[in-house]
């Protein structure tokens, strides 16, 4: 049991790693929280650091979700081997919570989109690719990453259900969608007001 708990704690700690801050400080000597939308996510990192920096942050955040699911599986194997899927789901959710409420950022953090994408990519790869296409089309047409993320999160559990994924995975999709929408509440207000920042490079001043 203790081993399983330790794996889940590790899932939270890894999820808490602020990828944008790490990339910004190590390679660009810049804190992304000082510019743009003032967060450490991949979108704001792209605005500040460019394609390479944004891609690095995206991949790191995605891997946090993948690792969270894997570590959740290890936790289940250690404590409840017959509940492997549930352990993976819990580990994935914990990594998303870590990303959104990071112990390294005074329990603040990102929106959880990229980390959540890593979680569902591990558990439901084909629906995840469909969701990514929906996201890419919306962002390509509007240049609004927040809009693509919100719509993608909402349709994800629907696509999982239609594709025939196990019900626990569909429920995970619903929970993740709720978390993403709640974390985007300010973005939703700005979208309605027509004031949302688009995905484009900014000049640091």
Automatic annotation (TrEMBL):
Keyword NADP in record: no
Bilayer topology annotation: Multi-pass membrane protein
Protein's GO biological process: phospholipid biosynthetic process
EC number: 2.3.1.275
Cellular-component GO terms for this entry: plasma membrane
Top-rank EC class of the record's enzyme: transferase
Location(s) in or outside the cell: Cell membrane
Pathway assigned in UniProt: Lipid metabolism; phospholipid metabolism
Reactions that this protein is recorded to catalyse: an acyl phosphate + sn-glycerol 3-phosphate = a 1-acyl-sn-glycero-3-phosphate + phosphate
Spans traversing the lipid bilayer: 6-28, 48-71, 83-105, 117-138, 158-182
Signal peptide: none
InterPro entries in the cross-refs: G3P_acylTferase_PlsY
Keyword tags: Acyltransferase, Cell membrane, Lipid biosynthesis, Lipid metabolism, Membrane, Phospholipid biosynthesis, Phospholipid metabolism, Transferase, Transmembrane, Transmembrane helix
Coiled coil: none
Gene Ontology MF, one: acyl-phosphate glycerol-3-phosphate acyltransferase activity
Entry keyword ATP-binding: no
Domain of life: Bacteria
Principal location: membrane
Protein family per UniProt: Belongs to the PlsY family.
HAMAP family: PlsY
Protein function: Catalyzes the transfer of an acyl group from acyl-phosphate (acyl-PO(4)) to glycerol-3-phosphate (G3P) to form lysophosphatidic acid (LPA). This enzyme utilizes acyl-phosphate as fatty acyl donor, but not acyl-CoA or acyl-ACP.
Binding partners and assembly: Probably interacts with PlsX.
PANTHER family: GLYCEROL-3-PHOSPHATE ACYLTRANSFERASE-RELATED (PTHR30309:SF0), INNER MEMBRANE PROTEIN YGIH (PTHR30309)
Protein name: Glycerol-3-phosphate acyltransferase
Species of the source: Megasphaera hutchinsoni
